[in-house]
Structure formats: C-alpha cells, structure tokens
Write a structure and sequence with these properties.
- The structure holds two protein chains of two kinds.
- Chain A is of the alpha+beta class.
- Chain A contains two helices and ten strands, in the order E-E-H-E-E-E-E-E-E-E-E-H.
- In chain A, the strands form three sheets. Chain A has a five-stranded antiparallel beta sheet with strand order 8-7-6-9-10, with no helix packed on it. Chain A has a three-stranded antiparallel beta sheet with strand order 4-3-5. In chain A, strands 1-2 form a two-stranded antiparallel ribbon.
- The longest helix of chain A has 18 residues.
- The relative contact order of chain A is 0.12.
- In chain B, strand 5 and strand 6 form a beta hairpin.
- In chain B, helix 1 packs across helix 3 and helix 4 packs across helix 17.
- The chains are: A alpha+beta, B alpha/beta.
- The structure holds zinc ion (ZN).
Chain lengths: 220, 425
Amino acid sequence: MTDKRMHKIPGHNDVKWDDKNSDKFRGDVKETGIGFMGYDYDTATEQFKVFLHYDQLYYWKYAEVSKLGKGFVDGEFWGTKCPKCGDKFFPPRVNCWNLDCNLEKSDWIKLKEEGIVHTFTIAGWSGKSSLKRLPFVLAYVIVDGCNTAIANELRGIDPWDAEFGMPVKVVWKPKDERQGTVTDWHFEPADGWKPGPMNAEKERMKELCQPVIEWVKTMK
Amino acid sequence: MSRKVCIAGGNATPFDYPMHITPEAMAANCIVETQKDIPDFTLRDLDFMVYSHFSVHFGKQLCPEWVIHDHLGLVGLPHVRIENGGNTGGSALYGAFLAVKSGLFDCVGVYGWETMDNVTQSQGSEFIALASDTRYEALAGGIYPIYYAAMAYKFMKENNLTEEDFAMAAMKNRNYAADNEKSQFYRSDYTNPDSPYYKKTLTIDDVMESRLISYPLKRLDCCLMSRGGAFALVTSEEWAKKHAPGNYVEIAGAGLSSCTIRAGDRIDFPGWNEMYGKGYPDMTEFAACRRSGEVAYDMAGIEYKKAAKEVDVAEIHDAFSSSETQIYKALHWANTDNIREFVREKRTFLDGDVPTNVGGGLMGYGHPVGATGIMSAVETMYHLNDTAPKKHLSSKTYVKDANTGLVNSHAGTGTSISNFILRRP
Ligand SMILES: [Zn+2]
C-alpha cells in the first residue's frame, strides 16, 4: 500500500509536453553560457579586472503544484486546504504546516479572487528588471480568508492612497500574455472602494515619490 | 557540564564597494592581524576550518572556500562552508561553537567573506532577492528592502513610532562608523570628498532627506552592499587561556532559530501560535530573534526582563534602521508600551545602557554578507578585551568596563537568526 501522503512522480517517459510555448516570450535573448567579455586595467594602482558574462535558461518544474501555473494561465486562483485542520493556503502548500497534521496532503480549492491588504509599502527602488515600474505599491494580501498573505503589486491607485485593511480584487493580464507565474496578475482596489482624504502622512509619501517619478522618466 | 567555548581572537578587513582584494588575500590579512593580537597562534594550531559565505552568484565560483583553503596551505585539514543568508556569519560561528563544545576540536578557524562589488547594486539586489521565495516574491518585483519596508511600516504603526524614530539608528551607526577607519562609511563617505557626507556628522534630517527606497525606508535607513572578510578563532577555554590570555572572551550563550521564508506565511503559523500565542509574530515581529535570544539568555543565565541592563555592549543586524528597532523588542530590551521612549531616550547610544553598533553596524561598517556576523562578534570582543581604543580611531567609541556583550546575526525576512552572549573571562 502506498502512503497517501506521497506525491505522485510521473514515470521517466510520461511527460510529453504536448502544449509547447517555450519560445513565446524568449525574444532575442540568447543563451551565451560562460564567456569573458573584456578587461580594464588601472596603471597607477596596477589593478586588473575582467568582465565575465553568464547567461543560462532554467526550467522550473511545478510538478505537484502545476495546478497553480495552469490556473494562472486559465485565469483561475487555486489554493490548498488541509482536510484535517482546515488551514487554507495561498501560495499553496501541498502538505499541511501543522505538525499535528503530520504532513497531511492538502486538497486543491478554487479561491475567490479577492482579498484584504495586510500590509504594504511604496517601492522607490528595486531590482534591475523592475526599475521602470517605480514607484509601485507592493502589498501583502490575505486572499479569500487564507491563513497566509501573498505579496504582489497593487495598481490602479496613487501609491500614497493605499491603506491597511483595504479590500482588493485580482486583475489578470490578457490571456495570451500569461506565463503561469505570479506576474500574470496584480491587485487593484475592490470595486466601489474610495481612498481616504489626503493627510500629512500621504503628503509625505507623495513628496518622497516625486524624485522617483522624475528619475524613472529619464530612463531609456 | 560540558566545557566552555571561547573566541580567542579575530579581525575583519576594511569593508567597501568597490574594493580590490581577493577573498583569499582578505583571509590571509585577517589571520596576520589576528596573530598580532595573539602572537602564539599559527596556522598549525587549526583543527578545523568553517567557511562562511552567502552567495556563489557574486563570484561565479562554486565551492569558493576551496580556493581559500589551499591558498592558506591547509590541505589535509577538514573544512566545511556554512550558508544561511544574512545569518551566514552567525551560523558559521554557531557551527564552530558546536565543534568545540562537542570536544572534538580545540581550535577552529571561522573565515567569512563576500564580494558583492562584482555586480552593480541593482543587480546585486536581484541576486539577494533569489534568497526570497523566487516563485512567489522576486518575480513580483520584490527585493529585500521592499519586504522589510512592508514589515517595518506595519511595525511603525502598531508601535506608535515615526520615520524619525527609525532614523535614530541610521544616524547613530554611521556616526560611530566615522571613528572606525575600516568601515565602509568612513572609506566611501566620511573621507571621500566626492560624498555628500564628507566629514559630516549626520543628523536625523540627513536621513529624512535621503531618497526613497521603500516607504518608510530611505537610502540612509538601509545598509549597502560590500566586499569584505572577517576571521574569528573559536577555541576551548584551555587553548584560549594558554595562547590568548588577555585577548579571549567566553561564548556564554548561543542560540539559533528559524522562521518562514515568505513573511506573509507567519501571520498564523501553528508552530509560533503554540510557542508565543495566536498571531505572533505577524509580519511585524522577529520571532526567530526572540527565540534564539531567549535560548542564549537562558544559557548565559540572563533574565529576559533585565537583558537591557545586563548587556553592556551589542552588535546587532541593522540591515535597516527599522530592523535594528524591531530587534530591540525581539531581544526583550523594550516592549510595545515603551519602545517609543526607549528609542527617544537614546538607550542604545554610547551614553545609554546598551550601546549598540558602536563599531558602525551594517549601515556604517558594511554588509559583505558572509563576513558580517563575524565582524559583529569581533567588534563586540574589542570592548570585552579592551582593545577597542586601538582598533578604532579613538577611544570615543570604546565601551569601558563592559563585561557582557551580545552579537546578533539575521537572515531573510527574519528567516534565520542567531544570538550570542559573550563575556569577559
Ligand atoms: Zn492541517
């Protein structure tokens, strides 16, 4: 008898990838692997520096969490729920986190695409790939009453108008742009929600955002 | 009771971005400097090496410790590398502590380094973000300062604090770093005519006026990326007494604890609900800091309520001014009712009862991840063995008559945290 807590691993030749989209978003990115691109030398201090470029394509297997990725592509939110203790997870956990549930395998459940902002911040700086989106609100949202909060961008709002506890909804990218990742969707204020009036703290945030807005305009 | 474990000596290199010295040369420098403090110590004394290095992405070299180990001439000697995010240094010290405590080894070298100046700051931010849950967080544009800011903002609100309260630590640590010529603030700002902070004693306004990183954090509320190395010699009490009299300190307490990788997963985690009550730590408190601190306090016989009185000097993980403030609470120095006064009364300044990060901390000295926790331990040791006046530029940043020190090292969004209590023997 197989223990029910075991996750199924497909057989070696069972995965056929009948629906291939692997080059859909690749653009002109080339996998260059490892290579030396040039060097600098400083005569006065006798310091030598080389330029190394390293570029590889990775494959992440969602495996037992594949329902999440397929759900994103289809515009559906799938979380999990422990049949023993009832804790609800998004991002999904496929084994319960409760030690008393002893790795109980959780059930997939379709979640309502709505939530409550638990906390948030206005980003004025980020990683290289996100600089042009600045300033943006990153919110941690409790989706559909889960026992966890998930981080994503909150758009459709002046950054300084975001509030703790505000209701939000999920907004999807157009279907043919979805990649099966968390960047397929973002949060926006729930229909009918109105920000509170300007106050000293919001004015301060607005003032801090202005140089960021100006700086982003200068980016190519 | 098992035997006592000591830090016999240790040193750090300067920290800077950029800086031109290889990891193996930094190791050699640190060991040479350590030999100045403990002339008896030679490489032949080593039984075991614990290497402390966070990200192989920065050097594009897997197992980079192998390069250093044979450079030092240590072939044949056992070695391991410990990697545990921002708490890599603390975790390596913890590993060395266990190795000596077990009785297996008497003299263990701990060398940590990072070469973050191999990439730009924004690229580096992305590398570090790979230590968040890449599937759910890094892709959404998150980098560590943003996650920390989201936690800090809620903490600020719930503890009745202001941006200015956080700015206190940012100002304090950099101003202390101006008295430490190895510090990144000293090298890249205080003595750099091109820096806006050249020869400047920072004020709260300087912090408030610096650019937005992620609300409520501004540039001066955040540490910088660095290149740097640090070395500590962890030994049995017997070894330390024989070879490093006058220099060694005792590790009286050591704790290591863990929390979720995603900060959003700790608002209702069964393990914490059970230990500290439902809903703790939420996204505001550092439960792994509280837990590892309590373990270290217990080992050292320190009552939690009296911790701020008993600890004479501390080096804690101020990756952000907000996290330094959050750590005050996690270590039982303050609580929700009095943290505002604790900050405003400057209790962690040199004249306060727990001088904290007088070596500069991460915001002032720098944060080459693998070296950081070891630097913090070494800086704490300098007060307990009275070498601070010669290690720093003056005795202004020397905490006299200190008997008990605390070292804190911190990873992820509070995902792994260690605390150590050091004592003057
Ligand atoms: Zn359960």
